[in-house]
Amino acid sequence: MTSAAPANSGLSFHTASRRHLLVECTDLSATMHLHHALESAALPGIVELIPAARTVLINFDPARTSATVLEKSIRGLSHTASESDDAREVTIDVHYDGEDLAEVAELLSVSPAEVIARHRAATWQVAFAGFAPGFGYLAGDDPLFDVPRRSSPRTRVPVGAVALAGEFTGVYPRSSPGGWQLIGRTDAQLWDLERDPPALFVPGTIVTFREAERESVTAETSASGDGDSTAVPNAAHAVEVLRPGLQLLVQDLGRPGFASMGVSNAGTADRFALTSANRIVGNAEAAAGLESFGGGTLLAITGTGVAAVTGAHGTITVTSADGTIHRPRLGQPFALEDGDELELGTAERGIRRYVAFRGGVEAESALESRSSDTLAHLGPAALEPGTTVGIGDGRAAPHLVDPGPHASQERHLPLPGETLTMTVTLGPREDWFTVAGVKTLLSQEWTVTHESDRVGLRLEGEVPLERSRTGELPSEGAVTGALQVPPNGQPVLFGPDHPLTGGYPIIASVDDTDLAAQLAPGVKLRFTTSEESAPDAAAADDGSDDHTHRSPENES
Protein backbone atom coordinates (compact mmCIF):
# COMPACT_ATOMS: atom_id res chain seq x y z
CA MET A 1 0.00 0.00 0.00
CA THR A 2 1.46 3.32 -1.06
CA SER A 3 0.44 6.90 -0.58
CA ALA A 4 1.79 10.17 -1.90
CA ALA A 5 -0.53 12.40 0.12
CA PRO A 6 1.24 14.83 2.45
CA ALA A 7 1.35 13.48 5.98
CA ASN A 8 -0.03 16.73 7.40
CA SER A 9 -3.20 17.08 5.32
CA GLY A 10 -6.55 17.27 7.10
CA LEU A 11 -5.17 16.89 10.62
CA SER A 12 -6.72 18.15 13.83
CA PHE A 13 -5.04 18.12 17.23
CA HIS A 14 -6.58 17.36 20.62
CA THR A 15 -5.14 17.39 24.14
CA ALA A 16 -5.41 13.94 25.71
CA SER A 17 -3.48 14.72 28.92
CA ARG A 18 -0.57 16.87 30.03
CA ARG A 19 1.77 14.46 28.24
CA HIS A 20 -0.42 13.06 25.47
CA LEU A 21 -1.47 14.60 22.16
CA LEU A 22 -4.17 13.02 19.98
CA VAL A 23 -3.77 13.67 16.26
CA GLU A 24 -6.91 13.04 14.22
CA CYS A 25 -6.81 12.16 10.52
CA THR A 26 -9.46 12.16 7.79
CA ASP A 27 -9.54 8.39 7.30
CA LEU A 28 -7.75 5.12 8.05
CA SER A 29 -5.33 5.44 5.13
CA ALA A 30 -4.23 8.90 6.30
CA THR A 31 -3.79 7.57 9.84
CA MET A 32 -1.57 4.71 8.68
CA HIS A 33 0.43 7.17 6.59
CA LEU A 34 0.87 9.59 9.51
CA HIS A 35 1.96 6.79 11.84
CA HIS A 36 4.58 5.67 9.33
CA ALA A 37 5.76 9.28 8.85
CA LEU A 38 6.07 9.81 12.61
CA GLU A 39 8.06 6.61 13.02
CA SER A 40 10.40 7.70 10.23
CA ALA A 41 10.77 11.25 11.55
CA ALA A 42 11.63 10.20 15.13
CA LEU A 43 10.73 13.64 16.48
CA PRO A 44 12.54 14.57 19.72
CA GLY A 45 10.57 13.96 22.92
CA ILE A 46 8.16 11.35 21.57
CA VAL A 47 8.02 8.37 23.93
CA GLU A 48 5.47 6.15 22.17
CA LEU A 49 2.91 6.17 19.35
CA ILE A 50 -0.49 4.45 19.58
CA PRO A 51 -2.20 4.36 16.17
CA ALA A 52 -5.92 3.63 15.89
CA ALA A 53 -8.71 3.86 13.31
CA ARG A 54 -8.64 7.63 12.75
CA THR A 55 -6.06 8.87 15.26
CA VAL A 56 -2.50 8.57 16.47
CA LEU A 57 -2.03 9.10 20.21
CA ILE A 58 1.39 10.55 20.99
CA ASN A 59 2.94 10.03 24.40
CA PHE A 60 5.61 12.70 24.82
CA ASP A 61 8.11 13.77 27.46
CA PRO A 62 7.15 17.31 28.57
CA ALA A 63 10.74 17.92 29.67
CA ARG A 64 11.88 17.60 26.03
CA THR A 65 8.98 18.93 23.97
CA SER A 66 5.42 20.24 24.16
CA ALA A 67 2.11 19.76 22.39
CA THR A 68 2.58 23.07 20.58
CA VAL A 69 6.06 22.15 19.33
CA LEU A 70 4.85 18.71 18.24
CA GLU A 71 1.88 20.14 16.34
CA LYS A 72 4.16 22.50 14.43
CA SER A 73 6.60 19.69 13.62
CA ILE A 74 3.84 17.31 12.51
CA ARG A 75 2.25 19.90 10.25
CA GLY A 76 5.63 20.26 8.57
CA LEU A 77 6.15 16.55 7.95
CA SER A 78 6.39 15.40 4.38
CA HIS A 79 6.63 11.74 3.43
CA THR A 80 5.85 10.09 0.11
CA ALA A 81 7.65 6.76 0.26
CA SER A 82 5.80 3.47 0.14
CA GLU A 83 4.74 2.19 3.50
CA SER A 84 4.93 -1.46 2.44
CA ASP A 85 8.38 -1.56 0.81
CA ASP A 86 9.96 -3.28 3.79
CA ALA A 87 6.81 -4.65 5.43
CA ARG A 88 6.68 -8.11 6.97
CA GLU A 89 4.44 -10.55 5.15
CA VAL A 90 2.54 -13.47 6.64
CA THR A 91 0.14 -15.99 5.18
CA ILE A 92 -2.65 -17.39 7.35
CA ASP A 93 -4.53 -20.58 6.54
CA VAL A 94 -8.21 -20.37 7.44
CA HIS A 95 -11.01 -22.91 7.81
CA TYR A 96 -13.93 -20.82 6.50
CA ASP A 97 -16.67 -22.33 8.64
CA GLY A 98 -17.52 -19.44 10.96
CA GLU A 99 -20.90 -19.22 12.66
CA ASP A 100 -21.69 -15.86 11.05
CA LEU A 101 -20.50 -16.56 7.49
CA ALA A 102 -24.02 -16.92 6.04
CA GLU A 103 -25.24 -13.79 7.87
CA VAL A 104 -22.24 -11.80 6.64
CA ALA A 105 -22.93 -12.91 3.07
CA GLU A 106 -26.53 -11.76 3.42
CA LEU A 107 -25.48 -8.41 4.87
CA LEU A 108 -23.08 -7.86 1.95
CA SER A 109 -25.60 -9.15 -0.65
CA VAL A 110 -23.24 -11.82 -1.98
CA SER A 111 -22.91 -15.58 -1.57
CA PRO A 112 -20.83 -17.19 1.20
CA ALA A 113 -18.49 -18.50 -1.50
CA GLU A 114 -17.88 -14.96 -2.75
CA VAL A 115 -17.21 -13.70 0.81
CA ILE A 116 -14.54 -16.40 1.12
CA ALA A 117 -13.05 -15.78 -2.32
CA ARG A 118 -12.81 -12.02 -1.85
CA HIS A 119 -11.47 -12.33 1.72
CA ARG A 120 -8.68 -14.52 0.29
CA ALA A 121 -8.05 -12.30 -2.74
CA ALA A 122 -7.80 -9.06 -0.77
CA THR A 123 -4.50 -7.69 0.44
CA TRP A 124 -4.76 -6.91 4.14
CA GLN A 125 -2.43 -4.71 6.15
CA VAL A 126 -2.26 -4.36 9.93
CA ALA A 127 -3.36 -0.78 10.61
CA PHE A 128 -3.02 -0.84 14.38
CA ALA A 129 -3.17 -3.13 17.40
CA GLY A 130 -5.39 -3.11 20.45
CA PHE A 131 -8.10 -4.94 22.39
CA ALA A 132 -5.67 -7.70 23.47
CA PRO A 133 -1.95 -8.45 23.01
CA GLY A 134 -1.48 -9.74 19.47
CA PHE A 135 -4.85 -8.55 18.15
CA GLY A 136 -4.36 -6.58 14.93
CA TYR A 137 -6.93 -4.49 13.07
CA LEU A 138 -6.37 -5.41 9.41
CA ALA A 139 -7.48 -3.02 6.66
CA GLY A 140 -8.07 -4.42 3.18
CA ASP A 141 -8.20 -3.14 -0.38
CA ASP A 142 -11.64 -4.60 -1.25
CA PRO A 143 -14.46 -2.08 -0.63
CA LEU A 144 -16.94 -4.95 -0.18
CA PHE A 145 -15.93 -5.42 3.43
CA ASP A 146 -17.86 -3.02 5.63
CA VAL A 147 -19.60 -5.29 8.11
CA PRO A 148 -21.62 -4.14 11.15
CA ARG A 149 -20.77 -5.66 14.51
CA ARG A 150 -23.18 -8.12 16.10
CA SER A 151 -26.08 -6.45 17.91
CA SER A 152 -25.42 -8.76 20.87
CA PRO A 153 -21.72 -9.51 21.51
CA ARG A 154 -20.70 -13.06 22.38
CA THR A 155 -19.51 -13.69 25.91
CA ARG A 156 -16.82 -16.00 24.52
CA VAL A 157 -15.14 -15.98 21.12
CA PRO A 158 -12.76 -18.94 20.67
CA VAL A 159 -9.03 -18.46 20.16
CA GLY A 160 -8.10 -18.33 16.48
CA ALA A 161 -11.49 -17.03 15.31
CA VAL A 162 -11.22 -15.04 12.06
CA ALA A 163 -13.72 -12.21 12.09
CA LEU A 164 -15.00 -9.06 10.38
CA ALA A 165 -16.20 -5.74 11.82
CA GLY A 166 -16.57 -2.44 10.01
CA GLU A 167 -13.78 -2.15 7.47
CA PHE A 168 -11.49 -4.51 9.40
CA THR A 169 -10.74 -8.19 9.64
CA GLY A 170 -8.95 -9.70 12.62
CA VAL A 171 -7.95 -12.91 14.38
CA TYR A 172 -8.62 -13.44 18.10
CA PRO A 173 -5.29 -14.30 19.79
CA ARG A 174 -7.06 -15.71 22.85
CA SER A 175 -10.55 -16.60 23.97
CA SER A 176 -12.45 -13.46 25.00
CA PRO A 177 -15.78 -11.67 24.68
CA GLY A 178 -16.33 -10.00 21.32
CA GLY A 179 -18.89 -8.58 18.93
CA TRP A 180 -17.18 -9.21 15.60
CA GLN A 181 -18.76 -11.44 12.92
CA LEU A 182 -17.06 -14.86 12.77
CA ILE A 183 -16.29 -16.22 9.30
CA GLY A 184 -13.62 -18.82 10.06
CA ARG A 185 -10.85 -20.11 12.29
CA THR A 186 -7.11 -20.62 12.16
CA ASP A 187 -4.46 -22.43 14.16
CA ALA A 188 -1.99 -19.58 13.69
CA GLN A 189 -0.34 -18.54 16.93
CA LEU A 190 -0.93 -14.80 17.07
CA TRP A 191 0.89 -14.23 20.36
CA ASP A 192 4.00 -16.10 21.53
CA LEU A 193 6.42 -14.69 24.10
CA GLU A 194 9.11 -17.04 22.77
CA ARG A 195 8.93 -15.35 19.34
CA ASP A 196 10.60 -12.10 18.32
CA PRO A 197 8.43 -10.09 18.11
CA PRO A 198 5.79 -11.91 20.18
CA ALA A 199 2.95 -10.52 18.05
CA LEU A 200 2.53 -12.03 14.59
CA PHE A 201 0.57 -8.92 13.55
CA VAL A 202 2.30 -5.58 14.09
CA PRO A 203 1.38 -2.34 12.28
CA GLY A 204 2.44 -2.45 8.64
CA THR A 205 2.41 -6.25 8.33
CA ILE A 206 0.93 -7.47 5.03
CA VAL A 207 -1.41 -10.44 5.58
CA THR A 208 -2.77 -12.87 3.03
CA PHE A 209 -5.48 -15.39 3.93
CA ARG A 210 -5.84 -18.73 2.15
CA GLU A 211 -8.15 -21.67 2.60
CA ALA A 212 -6.70 -24.29 4.92
CA GLU A 213 -6.00 -27.83 3.87
CA ARG A 214 -4.03 -30.13 6.13
CA GLU A 215 -1.50 -27.55 7.20
CA SER A 216 -3.10 -24.99 9.50
CA VAL A 217 -0.73 -22.07 9.11
CA THR A 218 2.46 -20.97 7.41
CA ALA A 219 4.11 -17.70 8.23
CA GLU A 220 6.88 -16.00 6.32
CA THR A 221 8.36 -14.75 9.56
CA SER A 222 10.56 -16.40 12.11
CA ALA A 223 8.91 -17.89 15.17
CA SER A 224 12.17 -18.04 17.06
CA GLY A 225 13.39 -15.62 19.68
CA ASP A 226 15.04 -15.32 23.02
CA GLY A 227 11.71 -14.88 24.81
CA ASP A 228 11.54 -13.79 28.42
CA SER A 229 13.17 -15.36 31.40
CA THR A 230 11.55 -16.84 34.44
CA ALA A 231 13.44 -16.14 37.62
CA VAL A 232 14.30 -19.03 39.92
CA PRO A 233 13.19 -18.19 43.46
CA ASN A 234 16.09 -17.32 45.75
CA ALA A 235 15.85 -19.98 48.42
CA ALA A 236 18.11 -18.01 50.78
CA HIS A 237 15.76 -15.05 50.90
CA ALA A 238 12.12 -15.51 49.92
CA VAL A 239 8.58 -14.58 50.85
CA GLU A 240 5.73 -17.09 51.17
CA VAL A 241 2.19 -15.81 50.85
CA LEU A 242 0.14 -17.07 53.79
CA ARG A 243 -2.79 -14.78 53.07
CA PRO A 244 -2.95 -12.50 50.01
CA GLY A 245 -5.84 -10.31 51.16
CA LEU A 246 -8.21 -8.99 48.51
CA GLN A 247 -5.50 -8.95 45.84
CA LEU A 248 -1.71 -9.26 45.95
CA LEU A 249 0.31 -8.60 42.79
CA VAL A 250 3.92 -8.28 41.73
CA GLN A 251 4.40 -4.84 40.17
CA ASP A 252 7.16 -2.70 38.72
CA LEU A 253 7.01 0.37 36.47
CA GLY A 254 5.44 -1.57 33.61
CA ARG A 255 6.29 -2.34 30.00
CA PRO A 256 6.36 0.82 27.87
CA GLY A 257 7.17 0.61 24.18
CA PHE A 258 4.98 -2.33 23.14
CA ALA A 259 1.82 -0.50 22.07
CA SER A 260 2.39 -1.62 18.48
CA MET A 261 1.65 -5.18 19.65
CA GLY A 262 -1.49 -4.22 21.57
CA VAL A 263 0.26 -4.13 24.95
CA SER A 264 -0.25 -1.18 27.30
CA ASN A 265 2.28 0.04 29.87
CA ALA A 266 0.31 -1.30 32.89
CA GLY A 267 2.69 -1.40 35.89
CA THR A 268 2.17 -0.19 39.42
CA ALA A 269 -1.03 1.75 40.03
CA ASP A 270 0.73 4.22 42.36
CA ARG A 271 4.16 4.96 40.89
CA PHE A 272 5.00 7.43 43.65
CA ALA A 273 4.42 4.83 46.38
CA LEU A 274 6.42 2.05 44.70
CA THR A 275 9.37 4.23 43.72
CA SER A 276 9.41 5.73 47.23
CA ALA A 277 9.51 2.26 48.80
CA ASN A 278 12.35 1.22 46.51
CA ARG A 279 14.37 4.33 47.31
CA ILE A 280 13.90 3.76 51.03
CA VAL A 281 15.44 0.26 50.90
CA GLY A 282 18.16 1.24 48.42
CA ASN A 283 16.76 -0.37 45.28
CA ALA A 284 16.59 1.12 41.81
CA GLU A 285 13.21 2.80 41.39
CA ALA A 286 12.16 0.28 38.74
CA ALA A 287 12.66 -2.77 40.99
CA ALA A 288 9.65 -5.04 41.44
CA GLY A 289 7.69 -5.00 44.68
CA LEU A 290 4.35 -6.22 45.99
CA GLU A 291 1.08 -4.31 45.52
CA SER A 292 -1.53 -5.12 48.17
CA PHE A 293 -5.10 -4.06 47.47
CA GLY A 294 -7.24 -3.43 50.55
CA GLY A 295 -4.84 -4.96 53.04
CA GLY A 296 -5.20 -8.24 54.90
CA THR A 297 -1.91 -9.55 53.50
CA LEU A 298 0.19 -11.96 55.58
CA LEU A 299 3.71 -12.99 54.47
CA ALA A 300 6.22 -15.47 55.90
CA ILE A 301 9.87 -14.45 55.58
CA THR A 302 12.80 -16.74 54.82
CA GLY A 303 16.25 -15.22 55.33
CA THR A 304 17.19 -11.76 56.54
CA GLY A 305 16.72 -8.46 54.81
CA VAL A 306 15.26 -4.97 54.80
CA ALA A 307 11.77 -3.90 53.73
CA ALA A 308 9.57 -0.81 53.59
CA VAL A 309 5.83 -0.25 53.20
CA THR A 310 4.34 2.81 51.48
CA GLY A 311 1.01 3.88 50.02
CA ALA A 312 -2.24 3.48 51.95
CA HIS A 313 -2.29 4.01 55.70
CA GLY A 314 -2.92 1.05 58.02
CA THR A 315 -1.22 -1.12 60.58
CA ILE A 316 2.06 -2.86 59.74
CA THR A 317 3.01 -5.73 62.03
CA VAL A 318 6.16 -7.86 62.11
CA THR A 319 5.91 -10.92 64.36
CA SER A 320 9.17 -12.79 65.03
CA ALA A 321 9.51 -16.53 65.49
CA ASP A 322 9.58 -16.09 69.28
CA GLY A 323 6.36 -14.03 69.26
CA THR A 324 7.92 -10.60 69.62
CA ILE A 325 5.82 -7.95 67.86
CA HIS A 326 7.20 -4.89 66.11
CA ARG A 327 5.10 -2.24 64.38
CA PRO A 328 7.13 -0.40 61.72
CA ARG A 329 6.03 3.02 60.53
CA LEU A 330 4.76 3.74 57.06
CA GLY A 331 7.60 4.93 54.84
CA GLN A 332 10.42 3.76 57.12
CA PRO A 333 12.86 0.86 56.48
CA PHE A 334 12.75 -2.08 58.88
CA ALA A 335 14.73 -5.28 59.31
CA LEU A 336 13.32 -8.74 58.64
CA GLU A 337 14.70 -11.93 60.17
CA ASP A 338 14.31 -15.55 59.20
CA GLY A 339 10.94 -16.83 60.45
CA ASP A 340 9.29 -13.41 60.71
CA GLU A 341 5.73 -12.83 59.56
CA LEU A 342 4.82 -9.49 57.97
CA GLU A 343 1.16 -8.51 58.15
CA LEU A 344 -0.59 -5.56 56.52
CA GLY A 345 -3.82 -4.70 58.28
CA THR A 346 -6.88 -3.33 56.52
CA ALA A 347 -6.14 -0.22 54.48
CA GLU A 348 -7.54 2.79 56.34
CA ARG A 349 -6.69 5.82 54.20
CA GLY A 350 -6.13 4.89 50.59
CA ILE A 351 -6.58 1.42 49.14
CA ARG A 352 -3.18 0.13 47.88
CA ARG A 353 0.01 -0.54 49.81
CA TYR A 354 3.44 -1.38 48.45
CA VAL A 355 6.10 -3.58 49.97
CA ALA A 356 9.66 -3.20 48.72
CA PHE A 357 12.38 -5.64 49.77
CA ARG A 358 16.05 -4.75 49.43
CA GLY A 359 17.18 -6.64 46.35
CA GLY A 360 13.73 -6.53 44.72
CA VAL A 361 11.12 -9.21 44.11
CA GLU A 362 12.14 -11.95 41.68
CA ALA A 363 9.31 -13.17 39.47
CA GLU A 364 8.50 -14.21 35.93
CA SER A 365 9.37 -11.55 33.36
CA ALA A 366 7.23 -10.80 30.30
CA LEU A 367 8.36 -8.20 27.76
CA GLU A 368 11.11 -6.91 30.03
CA SER A 369 8.79 -6.35 33.00
CA ARG A 370 7.67 -8.27 36.08
CA SER A 371 4.44 -6.27 36.19
CA SER A 372 1.15 -8.15 36.45
CA ASP A 373 -1.29 -6.84 33.80
CA THR A 374 -4.69 -8.13 34.93
CA LEU A 375 -6.49 -7.24 31.68
CA ALA A 376 -3.94 -8.56 29.17
CA HIS A 377 -2.96 -11.53 31.38
CA LEU A 378 0.73 -10.70 31.07
CA GLY A 379 3.31 -11.13 33.79
CA PRO A 380 2.98 -13.03 37.08
CA ALA A 381 -0.47 -14.19 38.12
CA ALA A 382 -2.08 -12.82 41.28
CA LEU A 383 -0.33 -14.34 44.29
CA GLU A 384 -2.29 -17.06 46.07
CA PRO A 385 -1.81 -18.73 49.48
CA GLY A 386 1.26 -20.96 49.36
CA THR A 387 2.96 -19.00 46.57
CA THR A 388 6.64 -18.28 47.18
CA VAL A 389 8.52 -15.43 45.51
CA GLY A 390 12.26 -14.93 45.72
CA ILE A 391 14.00 -11.77 46.88
CA GLY A 392 17.16 -10.63 45.10
CA ASP A 393 20.55 -10.28 46.70
CA GLY A 394 20.35 -7.12 48.77
CA ARG A 395 24.12 -6.70 48.53
CA ALA A 396 23.67 -5.97 44.83
CA ALA A 397 21.17 -3.16 45.44
CA PRO A 398 22.63 0.06 44.00
CA HIS A 399 22.04 2.38 46.97
CA LEU A 400 22.28 2.45 50.74
CA VAL A 401 19.16 2.06 52.86
CA ASP A 402 17.73 5.51 53.59
CA PRO A 403 16.43 5.71 57.19
CA GLY A 404 15.40 9.36 56.96
CA PRO A 405 11.87 10.76 56.73
CA HIS A 406 10.09 10.44 53.39
CA ALA A 407 7.30 12.37 51.69
CA SER A 408 5.20 9.21 51.54
CA GLN A 409 4.69 9.45 55.31
CA GLU A 410 3.02 12.85 55.07
CA ARG A 411 0.84 12.10 52.07
CA HIS A 412 -2.85 12.82 52.60
CA LEU A 413 -5.17 10.15 51.28
CA PRO A 414 -8.98 10.36 51.51
CA LEU A 415 -11.28 8.24 53.64
CA PRO A 416 -14.56 6.86 52.25
CA GLY A 417 -17.15 9.63 52.61
CA GLU A 418 -14.57 12.41 52.37
CA THR A 419 -14.59 14.73 49.36
CA LEU A 420 -11.43 15.15 47.31
CA THR A 421 -10.89 17.74 44.59
CA MET A 422 -8.84 16.51 41.63
CA THR A 423 -7.44 18.58 38.77
CA VAL A 424 -8.30 17.38 35.25
CA THR A 425 -7.19 18.28 31.76
CA LEU A 426 -10.14 18.50 29.39
CA GLY A 427 -9.98 16.47 26.17
CA PRO A 428 -9.62 14.93 23.78
CA ARG A 429 -13.39 14.56 23.21
CA GLU A 430 -15.07 17.16 25.41
CA ASP A 431 -16.66 18.46 22.18
CA TRP A 432 -18.77 15.26 22.15
CA PHE A 433 -20.58 16.67 25.19
CA THR A 434 -22.85 19.64 25.60
CA VAL A 435 -21.76 22.75 27.46
CA ALA A 436 -24.08 21.57 30.24
CA GLY A 437 -22.40 18.15 30.21
CA VAL A 438 -18.93 19.63 30.69
CA LYS A 439 -20.32 21.89 33.41
CA THR A 440 -21.83 18.85 35.15
CA LEU A 441 -18.43 17.13 35.14
CA LEU A 442 -16.82 20.13 36.83
CA SER A 443 -19.60 21.08 39.25
CA GLN A 444 -21.14 17.80 40.40
CA GLU A 445 -19.92 15.51 43.13
CA TRP A 446 -18.99 11.98 41.99
CA THR A 447 -18.74 8.84 44.11
CA VAL A 448 -16.24 6.02 43.58
CA THR A 449 -18.33 2.85 43.37
CA HIS A 450 -17.46 -0.72 44.37
CA GLU A 451 -17.19 -1.59 40.67
CA SER A 452 -13.55 -0.56 40.64
CA ASP A 453 -10.28 -2.38 39.93
CA ARG A 454 -6.97 -1.85 38.14
CA VAL A 455 -8.78 -1.50 34.81
CA GLY A 456 -10.92 1.40 35.97
CA LEU A 457 -13.00 3.05 38.67
CA ARG A 458 -16.68 3.46 37.91
CA LEU A 459 -17.95 6.81 39.15
CA GLU A 460 -21.54 7.69 39.94
CA GLY A 461 -23.16 11.11 39.89
CA GLU A 462 -26.72 12.30 40.29
CA VAL A 463 -26.82 13.77 36.77
CA PRO A 464 -25.26 11.80 33.87
CA LEU A 465 -23.01 13.63 31.45
CA GLU A 466 -25.04 14.92 28.49
CA ARG A 467 -23.68 14.17 25.03
CA SER A 468 -23.90 16.49 22.04
CA ARG A 469 -22.97 13.73 19.61
CA THR A 470 -24.41 10.26 19.36
CA GLY A 471 -23.15 7.31 17.40
CA GLU A 472 -19.99 5.29 17.65
CA LEU A 473 -16.55 6.84 18.01
CA PRO A 474 -13.90 4.89 16.06
CA SER A 475 -11.51 3.16 18.47
CA GLU A 476 -8.67 5.43 19.57
CA GLY A 477 -5.86 5.38 22.09
CA ALA A 478 -6.62 5.95 25.76
CA VAL A 479 -4.40 7.01 28.66
CA THR A 480 -4.21 6.09 32.32
CA GLY A 481 -6.34 8.59 34.22
CA ALA A 482 -8.76 9.11 31.32
CA LEU A 483 -12.42 9.74 32.13
CA GLN A 484 -14.19 7.64 29.51
CA VAL A 485 -17.95 8.05 29.28
CA PRO A 486 -20.13 5.09 28.21
CA PRO A 487 -23.71 5.63 26.97
CA ASN A 488 -25.13 5.81 30.52
CA GLY A 489 -23.25 9.08 31.08
CA GLN A 490 -21.45 7.83 34.23
CA PRO A 491 -17.66 8.14 33.71
CA VAL A 492 -15.04 5.45 34.21
CA LEU A 493 -11.64 6.59 35.47
CA PHE A 494 -9.06 4.42 33.69
CA GLY A 495 -6.44 2.64 35.80
CA PRO A 496 -3.09 1.20 34.68
CA ASP A 497 -4.60 -1.96 33.17
CA HIS A 498 -7.08 -0.07 30.95
CA PRO A 499 -7.60 -1.13 27.32
CA LEU A 500 -5.05 0.33 24.92
CA THR A 501 -7.82 1.67 22.69
CA GLY A 502 -11.50 2.36 23.24
CA GLY A 503 -14.61 3.52 21.41
CA TYR A 504 -16.36 5.66 24.04
CA PRO A 505 -15.50 9.38 24.16
CA ILE A 506 -13.02 10.59 26.77
CA ILE A 507 -14.07 13.92 28.22
CA ALA A 508 -10.95 14.59 30.34
CA SER A 509 -8.07 12.99 32.21
CA VAL A 510 -7.06 13.37 35.85
CA ASP A 511 -3.64 14.88 36.35
CA ASP A 512 -2.60 12.88 39.43
CA THR A 513 -2.92 9.21 38.47
CA ASP A 514 -1.02 8.10 41.59
CA LEU A 515 -3.66 9.67 43.81
CA ALA A 516 -6.38 8.13 41.65
CA ALA A 517 -4.91 4.70 42.43
CA GLN A 518 -5.65 5.30 46.14
CA LEU A 519 -9.36 6.11 45.77
CA ALA A 520 -11.40 3.65 47.82
CA PRO A 521 -15.09 2.96 47.18
CA GLY A 522 -17.17 5.66 48.85
CA VAL A 523 -14.69 8.50 48.28
CA LYS A 524 -16.39 11.61 46.86
CA LEU A 525 -14.73 13.49 44.00
CA ARG A 526 -14.99 16.95 42.56
CA PHE A 527 -13.14 17.86 39.39
CA THR A 528 -11.59 21.18 38.46
CA THR A 529 -9.40 22.26 35.56
CA SER A 530 -5.84 23.41 36.07
CA GLU A 531 -6.85 26.92 35.01
CA GLU A 532 -9.53 27.08 37.71
CA SER A 533 -7.43 25.56 40.49
CA ALA A 534 -4.20 27.42 39.72
CA PRO A 535 -4.61 30.41 37.41
CA ASP A 536 -0.91 31.26 37.75
CA ALA A 537 0.24 27.69 37.08
CA ALA A 538 1.94 28.73 33.86
CA ALA A 539 4.25 31.04 35.79
CA ALA A 540 5.23 28.26 38.16
CA ASP A 541 5.69 25.67 35.41
CA ASP A 542 9.02 25.10 33.69
CA GLY A 543 7.43 26.00 30.39
CA SER A 544 8.05 22.62 28.80
CA ASP A 545 4.55 21.21 29.22
CA ASP A 546 1.65 22.73 27.34
CA HIS A 547 -1.35 22.31 29.64
CA THR A 548 -3.87 24.26 27.62
CA HIS A 549 -3.16 23.23 24.03
CA ARG A 550 -6.37 23.03 22.07
CA SER A 551 -7.25 22.75 18.39
CA PRO A 552 -10.41 23.49 16.40
CA GLU A 553 -13.16 20.94 16.75
CA ASN A 554 -13.18 18.05 14.34
CA GLU A 555 -15.53 18.88 11.48
CA SER A 556 -16.18 15.27 10.47
UniProtKB/TrEMBL annotation:
Keyword Thylakoid set for record: no
Keyword Nucleotidyltransferase: no
Signal peptide residue numbers: none
Pfam families for this protein: CT_A_B, CT_C_D
Membrane-crossing residue ranges in chain numbering: none
Protein name: KipI family sensor histidine kinase inhibitor
One MF annotation (Gene Ontology) recorded for this entry: hydrolase activity
Keywords of this entry: ATP-binding, Hydrolase, Nucleotide-binding
InterPro entries: CT_A_B, CT_C_D, Cyclophilin-like_dom_sf, PxpC
Annotated ranges, domain Carboxyltransferase: 11-201, 260-544
Residue ranges that the Swiss-Prot or TrEMBL entry lists as coiled coil: none
Comp. bias intervals (Basic and acidic residues): 545-556
Top-level taxonomic group: Bacteria
Region Disordered: start-end pairs: 386-413, 526-556
